[in-house]
Specification:
By secondary structure, this protein is an alpha/beta fold. 51% of the residues lie in helices and 14% in strands. It is built from 10 helices and 6 strands; from the N terminus they run βαβαβαβαβαβααααα. Helix 7 packs across helix 9. It is globular and about 50 Å long.
Length: 213
Amino acid sequence: MIRVALVDDQTLVRQGIRSLLELSDDIRVVVEAADGAEALRVIAEARPDVVLLDVRMPKRSGLEVLHDLQDSGRAVPTVLLTTFDDDAVAFEGVRAGAKGFLLKDVTLEQLTEAIRTVAAGGSLIRPAVTERVMRGIAELRPSFDSLDPPDALTPRETQVLRLMAGGYSNREIADALGSAEGTVKNHASVILSKLGVRDRTRAVLKALELGWI
């Protein structure tokens, strides 16, 4: 069972999302919060597998919650709940470690897919959000020195990167490619190194910028 923390200051939104997730067999909302300060408390207490996090809330914003979780060493795979005017927040969300973005009008299938993906260690960036993120991707800076342009990826690394962009976990990528999970992890590490980024989400965004996927 995937245990979810649902954080949104709108009661109706929380009720709607919870009702949708109750239709699934493997996902349950175990705790809710209506503001950022409450979110930090309940996440620490409940230790969920995934957090669905609104970006605009009283007391502490979704981004502040992300940063606080990272700084305290209590980071949880997090999907930001966004609206069409949240461009800047989407950029900052990548920096803060968000594993995905969802628009609040998603279907149940999209919602459960996103939760399962990030719970399995993947990342997910919806096309509707990707276009907006790409408009500001120039603001993202490498986490460490890298070549400009980066070294080209091998054909196998490109295959791995494309599957990473699809939100697949290392195990799922290994199964798809008929490879060992450790080999996929090595490929992923090389991809991050070549692109000069520190996580899979940034790798996907950088690859999109370069036109590699």
